[in-house]
Specification:
Helix 8 crosses helix 9 and helix 9 packs antiparallel against helix 15. The chain is α+β, with helices and mostly antiparallel strands. Helices cover 52% and strands 7% of the residues. The chain has a single domain, classed as Cytochrome P450 (Cytochrome p450, Orthogonal Bundle), CATH 1.10.630.10. A four-stranded mixed β-sheet has the order 1-2-7-4. Strands 3-9-8 form a three-stranded antiparallel β-sheet. It has a two-stranded antiparallel sheet with strand order 5-6. The radius of gyration is 24 Å and the shape is globular.
Length: 511
């Protein structure tokens, strides 16, 4: 009897899956024929490709504006038309204002209380509250800390490179250290130097986040693809260690500052203003976070920790990859490298040979280089949304039903010759000459849910690049080549790292 029941259950499950895989066919949408049981994720589970590359491969199989796909058994819609994507993210935002990821701000505020996760009005309220964190005045006040980390990076490289000749350096690892130290200092006010002290608390959090364990893969997948299962894990008490470590750091630092009346110019101080006063001070010179005695707390420790954890994860990966990929591409194109070095040198001369927030803003050619890097190597190769109300697709009879996950293949759009001629060529001038379709360029997202910290990320990346270009030669590769993308993770990562040859610049070269 048990065997018969088992056979019946397996048979029913098989036919249910087969029927489920006809969802897009029944709705009249063009669709990508799924491979049972993993569908679009087949290459991911076989470790043949990362999630972004797997979606990119599907993008290239068709010219349809939308394509029905399956994330294992979950139907999702791949939107590959740039104008429709822009409508979804901007004009028709009200129909797609949520990401469709795990959110449980009551039971799990520590992991899902960040801006990336929250839905609806909860997200909108927090976004409005936190926007003043990243004004130019606040970033300018914190710039000295960013430059200090850049100088530590230069000192480290000077100690590693020979006085004569060049040495190969794995830039992604180096720039991850740089980015983590900036976040430790600018966000948390922690005095660390990971270049010479690799066992500090912030690097330990990073190692825990990047542990390639089966559990971390399962949790990361469920947060994006199966939020209901992620909620079940939380109910059973299976919590990730890295967010807990971040909460302890935040709680300990806030307690110390309040007890010792410490005030610093960093993000945590601004979040303490939100916690104690309910708003961020308008005066860029006033960083006090004092509140009235026994006054109410407007933001919990968990929400502060959740958002700082989000900034930490997104910030160090984005900055490290952008700088490393830009340096790699500069090594492929000597004429572009020379222009970038000249841009840095001339701007610094204009500003009295001093690094400053204003000087960094004036490095316009460096901006073009970063734009082209974030086009060719978008930090997140896909964007995700969820349809929040039935949405008729313009100029068609198709309707996206409420609750449908939306996948935006950013890597596909950015490497599509329809929008960016000769897309695999790294060509910063395309932005200066307007030789591209601006509708398709969205490396930090678009609309109300675009990356809130993109301005800070750009400053951090430009400081690192400017310091590199001013102090070191980036050796040219004898044969131009492409970076091979690793077959794991969600962000675009280089297989084997990003390796370039660096040498010290002589005084005559710097001048």
């Amino acid at each position: 009897m048990f065997l018969l029941l088992l056979i019946a259950a397996c048979t029913l499950a098989f036919f249910y899956i087969k029927w489920n895989y006809t969802y897009w066919q029944r709705k009249g949408f063009p669709y990508y024929e799924p491979k049972i049981p993993f569908a679009v994720l087949d290459k991911v589970f076989k470790r043949e490709a990362s999630l972004g590359i797997a979606v990119y491969d599907v993008y290239r199989t068709t010219k349809d504006k939308v394509l029905g796909i399956y994330l294992m058994t979950r139907p999702a819609l791949l939107v590959r038309d740039a104008q429709l994507v822009k409508n979804i993210l901007v004009r028709d935002f009200e129909s797609f204002h949520d990401r469709g990821v795990h959110v449980d701000d009551e039971k799990d505020p520590q992991s899902s209380g960040g801006l990336f996760f929250l839905k609806g009005q909860d997200w909108k309220s927090l976004r409005v509250t936190m926007t003043p964190l990243f004004t130019s005045g606040k970033l300018k006040a914190m710039f000295g800390t960013v430059e200090d980390v850049g100088d530590k990076m230069v000192n480290y490289l000077n100690g590693q490179l020979p006085d004569e000749g060049a040495k190969e350096v794995e830039l992604k690892k180096l720039m991850s250290t740089y980015a983590i130290d900036i976040i430790a200092s600018v966000f948390f006010g922690l005095e660390v130097n990971s270049f010479v002290e690799p066992n500090n608390v912030m690097l330990n959090v990073s190692r825990k986040i990047n542990e390639p364990t089966f559990g971390s893969v399962v949790r990361g997948t469920c947060q994006f693809l199966y939020p209901g299962l992620e909620k079940l894990f939380i109910r059973f008490g299976w919590r990730e260690e890295a967010p807990n470590m971040m909460r302890e750091i935040v709680q300990r630092t806030i307690k110390m500052r309040e007890e010792q009346n410490i005030s610093r110019k960093d993000m945590l101080q601004l979040l303490m203003q939100l916690r104690n006063k309910g708003q961020i001070n308008d005066d860029d010179n006033d960083w006090s976070a004092k509140a009235g005695k026994d006054g109410p707390k407007h933001m919990s420790i968990e929400i502060i920790a959740s958002n700082l954890f989000l900034f930490y994860v997104a910030g160090y990966e984005t900055t490290a990859s952008t700088v490393a990929f830009t340096a790699f591409e500069l090594a492929q194109y000597p004429e572009v490298l020379e222009k970038a070095q000249r841009d840095v040198r001339e701007v610094l001369e204009k500003h009295g040979n001093k690094f400053s927030y204003d000087a960094i803003q004036d490095m316009k050619y460096l901006d073009l280089c970063i734009m082209e890097t974030t086009r060719k190597y978008p930090a997140l190769p896909i964007l995700n949304r969820q349809c929040t109300q039935d949405y008729p697709i313009p100029n068609s009879e198709l309707v996206i039903k409420k609750g449908t996950p939306i996948i935006i293949p950013l890597l596909g759009l950015h490497r599509d010759a329809q929008y960016f001629p000769d897309p695999m060529r790294w060509y910063p001038e395309r932005f200066e000459k307007k030789e591209y379709d601006a509708t398709a360029f969205m490396p930090f997202g678009e609309g109300p849910r675009h990356c809130i910290a993109q301005r800070m990320g750009r400053v951090n990346a430009k400081v690192a690049l400017a310091k590199l270009l001013l102090n070191f030669n980036i050796e040219l590769n004898p044969v131009r080549k492409e970076i091979e993308i690793a077959n794991f993770g969600i962000p675009i990562q280089a297989k084997g790292g990003v390796n370039v040859r660096l040498s010290k610049r002589k005084a005559s070269q710097v001048a």
